[in-house]
Design brief:
This is NifT/FixU. The protein is mainly beta. Helices cover 0% and strands 51% of the residues. It has a single domain (2-65), classed as Beta Barrel (OB fold (Dihydrolipoamide Acetyltransferase, E2P)), CATH 2.40.50.
């Protein structure tokens, strides 16, 4: 699940791990597409297939750990 926090930033939540972190960067964040490699403030990296047009938040997406 990805949702906006009170400051307008994006929060990344993984229910199975009860983990919530702020998204630090997104590989593709344009008016045409959103997604790719996502880095969290804890340093972990995840991959979300780019979505076109970008999703409205909150939204639930499929993702996997990014490869090193």
């Amino acid at each position: 699940m990805i949702r906006r926090n009170d400051d307008g930033g994006l929060l990344f939540y993984v229910a199975k791990k009860d983990m919530e972190e702020t998204i630090a960067s997104v590989e593709t964040d344009t008016p045409e597409a959103w997604g790719g490699e996502v880095e969290l403030t804890d340093g972990s990296r995840w991959y979300i297939d780019p979505i076109s047009p970008p999703p409205e938040f909150p939204t639930t997406l499929r993702f996997k750990r990014a490869e090193d």
